[in-house]
């Protein structure tokens, strides 16, 4: 089911890309590559051996969650799938997409403050409650966990790095501030998990009768991965965002200079 959804998403994107190419409209190969890379990372997280490893290892589970929340979603957003759909879809579908983008629920979700709260708050809810154990014991709960984590991540990254139209355009300084504020929240959660002197997720004790010491060590390792990899990645994204800010400012300055030159008497 998961693999079929990923393949369908990739096929729809490729079909839209080819339709624009046949019409002589350039969309950008880099965007397509970003979207493909995002789908590939989702595949690694959800339909590779990592999915099975996550059932018995907290560290593997954290690696899976990082792929679902930090790595794949920004790549999907950079692929600008909404823009592609608006340009490549028939008129009826295009009108429906425009109405949806202008709807109240989308406007609320596109608010960067709402996106930040959902993105930061959801891991706290899952990791510091019984929901994590339920996801390990129930296939349906596990699917729901992945859907919620991925969904809230897409909502967050869409206005922060995406090229698609948004009801709430976010300035470059606000984007960088948002990214920066994710880091202390993620660090706090990682420290809370690392500081626990007993296993937080009893399902791992039942899986293969793992000893407490082994489960606790794995829990500590997972917390370190969450803190180290997560924060390093956010630093990388902030640096890229700063570079984009500089590039956009330079383009705006060149346009102003060109207009000034055009208006100046010869």
Description:
The chain is mainly α. It is globular. It is built from 13 helices and no strands. The model has no long low-confidence stretch (mean pLDDT 92). It has one domain.
In short:
With 266 residues, this protein is mostly helical. 82% of the residues lie in helices and 0% in strands.
Radius of gyration: 21 Å
Distance between the termini: 66 Å
- How many helical elements? 13
Percentage beta strand: under 5%
Mean pLDDT: 92
How do the helices and strands follow one another from N- to C-terminus?
HHHHHHHHHHHHH
Structural class: mainly alpha
The helix fraction, in percent, is over 70%
Low-confidence stretches: none
Shape: globular
Counted up, domains total 1
Profile the largest sheet: none
Number of strand segments: 0
Features:
single chain; 266 residues; mainly alpha; 0% strand; globular
Helices and strands in order, then pairings?
Layout: H1 2-22, H2 29-47, H3 49-53, H4 58-78, H5 81-88, H6 91-101, H7 104-110, H8 112-127, H9 131-137, H10 139-161, H11 172-195, H12 203-206, H13 212-263
């Amino acid at each position: 089911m998961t693999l079929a959804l990923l393949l369908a998403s990739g096929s729809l994107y490729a079909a839209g890309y080819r339709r624009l190419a046949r019409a002589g409209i350039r969309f950008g190969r880099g965007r397509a590559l970003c979207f493909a890379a995002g789908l590939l990372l989702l595949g690694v997280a959800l339909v590779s051996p990592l999915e099975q490893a996550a059932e018995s290892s907290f560290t593997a589970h954290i690696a899976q969650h990082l792929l679902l929340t930090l790595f794949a979603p920004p790549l999907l957003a950079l692929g600008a799938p909404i823009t592609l759909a608006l340009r490549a879809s028939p008129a009826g579908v295009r009108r429906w997409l425009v109405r949806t983008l202008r709807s109240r629920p989308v406007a609320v979700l596109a608010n960067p403050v709402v996106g930040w709260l959902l993105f930061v708050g959801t891991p706290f809810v899952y990791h510091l409650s019984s929901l994590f154990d339920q996801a390990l014991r129930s296939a349906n709960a596990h699917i729901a966990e992945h859907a919620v984590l991925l969904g809230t991540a897409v909502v967050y990254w869409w206005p922060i790095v995406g090229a698609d139209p948004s009801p709430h355009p976010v300035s470059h300084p606000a984007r960088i501030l948002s990214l920066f504020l994710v880091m202390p929240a993620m660090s706090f959660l990682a420290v809370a998990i690392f500081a626990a002197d007993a296993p937080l997720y009893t399902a791992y004790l039942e899986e293969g009768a793992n000893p407490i010491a082994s489960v606790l060590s794995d829990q500590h390792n997972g917390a370190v991965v969450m803190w180290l990899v997560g924060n390093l990645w956010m630093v990388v994204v902030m640096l890229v965002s700063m570079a984009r800010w500089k590039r956009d400012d330079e383009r705006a300055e060149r346009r102003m200079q060109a207009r000034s030159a055009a208006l100046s008497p010869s």
